[in-house]
Specification:
The complex is a heterodimer of chains A (282) and B (305). Chain A is flat and about 80 Å long. Chain A has 15 helices and no strands. With 282 residues, chain A is mainly alpha-helical. In chain A, 73% of the residues lie in helices and 0% in strands. With 305 residues, chain B is mostly helical. In chain B, 73% of the residues lie in helices and 1% in strands. Classes of the chains: A mainly alpha (282), B mainly alpha (305). At the A-B interface, helix 1, helix 2, helix 5, helix 6 and helix 7 of A face helix 2, helix 6, helix 7, helix 9 and helix 11 of B. Chain B: One of its GO terms (cellular component) is plasma membrane.
């Protein structure tokens, strides 16, 4: 193990390390801690210039209550859910199929199709902006959640295919060979042999895509406008315009907007990290 | 009778070609979707960049006109310069991530929680990171100015000063990116071969020499991924600029992706063709890296099945 395990080092360094950890953490998260502090302060603290002192009263309920009951925030959150969840489902379905095809079968175009997905996934998405916006307008899906979902599914399929294909390649191929010798149909091999083995990868991918899509801002402002379809990342700017200079409310709003992926991360930590670091170890 | 022979030939054709046909059946929905929404639009964008088009009326062919205009456009060079600054400084997230990973790669009580909390910034949307840092830099009450005020300095208005603005935004972007690199390296460090470390220790290697000659080479896969995601992140930077400064002051914090958006979709007018030409330039820069990434993956793949 590198660096040298702390148990083998002198007692003094052990104690320093233990003391250093929380200090480093607080410094690392300082901007967030500041926002969390802002979000429970009363309005009066900002007018009197008490920015960094203790809150003069604990206004958690008032501030967050206002975010949830006196603004469009719940609407935006709901939109985000209706955009994110179908995208995750769509990506999982499409990419488990493409990943299976590219991971299991040997055919001439295999590597080319794979590279098309990978290259498309790396493309700076600004180059897609004008045509995709146009396409969405033509389909009559501009400013709808469906329009956003369809694009997200298509674009994320690139990343997901890369992910699934690499995962399936690492599975024991013998299982498939044996099934073939037994005369099992190919689609049955997919459904009964490969899919059950893919479960951890599917879970990892689902949480990653959830986070990516929830946090998307660019496509939200390109393909939607207004409270009826915008997700929370785009909605927060109109929220902030509504409460200009009301820092306690803007902070509370930001925290609410950031929370779902954070919750997802802490609940599914193992899968999340497994997904992000796939390929980091050979 | 005849119908049954037909059925058997039909099924036997499928049976004979099952292995060849199945992958295409499985690929079809994904590939069609991807072609439709990702691959074709790339070429459409390239073609739009040869037109003058406001998105509504008929596009007018102007050949290389948009690119010629780019050549004389100062704002384009500011964006390009900022893109390069982003690219170079963003890479600092990789050593920073490695450093934090080394710091946290211990087994003390509660270390798992520490690791997750250090990783935390990556999970938050860039929009929120942008807002948080805007307040952090605020000249009247921001923590940054409170802090340098202790030393009698400031106040500086990071986001309002054309000299600092790009660096200020990059610092905000590096924060989550470092967290990402950290998690990659923590995973990589877990897989480092302990026997090699012991052997190197017996040979008297320690500290920096050990890190550089024994550990870092073994972390190569993690470094590769960190490199890929950081480059892509740097070239895609848009959210932070849009939230923190909206390109200002005086357009000094624009990057290509933001300038493109501004030209094509903001109140300055809907110049789709000109926007597309900026996107094509950005794409060409990216293409250079994409080619390199694909080449490395290809080399890797030759070893596999």
């Amino acid at each position: 193990m590198f660096p040298t395990p702390i148990e083998k080092s002198p007692r003094s360094w052990q104690l320093t390390y233990q003391a250093l950890l929380p200090v480093a953490l607080v410094m690392w998260l300082l901007p967030l801690i500041a926002v969390a502090l802002f979000s429970i302060k009363p309005d009066a603290d900002f007018t009197t210039g008490n920015y960094w002192g203790l809150p003069s009263s604990f206004n958690f309920v008032e501030n967050y209550g206002k975010v949830f009951f006196a603004s469009d925030m719940p609407r935006y959150l709901l939109n985000s859910v209706f955009i994110t969840v179908p995208t995750v489902v769509g990506c999982v379905i499409l990419s488990s199929m493409t990943g299976f095809a590219l991971g299991v079968y040997k055919f001439k175009a295999n590597l080319w199709v794979f590279f098309m997905f990978v290259a498309g996934n790396f493309v700076p998405f600004q180059i897609l902006m004008v045509p995709v916006r146009d396409l969405t307008l033509d389909l009559g899906l501009y400013n709808t959640k469906t329009g956003l979902v369809l694009f997200h599914i298509a674009f994320q399929t690139g990343f997901c295919t890369l992910f699934m294909r690499n995962f399936i390649r690492a599975l024991p191929f013998d299982l498939i060979e044996v099934a073939r010798v037994e005369g099992v149909a190919e689609w049955r091999i997919f459904w009964y042999v490969v899919l059950p083995l893919m479960k951890p990868a599917l879970a990892a991918m689902a949480v990653l895509i959830f986070t990516f899509i929830w946090n998307d801002f660019f496509w939200a402002i390109v393909l939607t406008q207004g409270a009826e379809s915008q997700p929370v990342t785009a909605g927060i700017t109109s929220f902030n315009a509504q409460y200009r200079a009301a820092y306690h409310l803007m902070s509370a709003g930001s925290i609410v907007a950031a929370l779902p992926p954070v919750a997802m991360f802490f609940l599914m930590q193992k899968h999340f990290i497994a997904g992000l670091t796939l390929g980091a170890v050979k | 009778m005849s119908s049954s022979t037909k059925a058997t030939t039909k099924s036997s054709w499928y049976k004979r070609n099952e292995i060849a046909v199945t992958p295409w059946l499985f690929l079809a929905p994904g590939v069609i979707f991807f072609l439709f929404y990702v691959i074709f639009p790339i070429f459409q964008s390239i073609s739009v960049s040869f037109y003058e088009w406001d998105g509504l009326s008929d596009p007018e062919w102007i050949g290389l006109g948009n690119y010629e205009e780019l050549y004389w456009d100062d704002a384009f060079y500011v964006s390009l310069r900022n893109n390069l600054i982003w690219l170079v400084l963003y890479l600092l997230a990789i050593p920073a991530g490695l450093f934090i990973a080394l710091f946290l790669n211990q087994t003390v009580m509660g270390i798992r929680l520490y690791k997750s909390l250090f990783f935390f910034p990556f999970v938050i949307s860039q929009v929120v990171v942008g807002l948080v840092f805007t307040w952090f830099y605020d000249p009247t009450f921001g923590l940054l100015n409170e802090f340098i005020g202790i030393f009698g300095l400031g106040p500086i208005n990071v986001l309002g000063d054309e000299r600092y603005v790009t660096y200020g935004i990059i610092a905000a972007g590096i924060w989550p990116q470092t967290a990402y690199c950290m998690i990659l390296y923590l995973t990589g460090l877990n897989a480092v071969d302990p026997e090699q470390i012991e052997a190197a220790r017996l040979d008297g290697a320690k500290g920096w020499r050990m890190l550089w000659h024994v550990i870092v080479p073994q972390l190569k896969p993690a470094t590769f991924i960190a490199f890929v995601v950081t480059i892509i992140g740097a070239l895609r930077s848009f959210d932070l600029i849009s939230i923190m400064t909206n390109g200002g002051p005086f357009g000094e914090s624009r990057v290509l992706s933001f300038y493109m958006f501004e030209v094509a979709l903001s109140e300055y007018g809907f110049r789709m063709g000109y926007g597309a030409s900026i996107a094509v330039v950005l794409f060409l820069i990216m293409l250079f890296f994409i080619a390199y990434f694909l080449y490395s993956m290809y080399q890797d793949d030759k070893g596999g099945r």
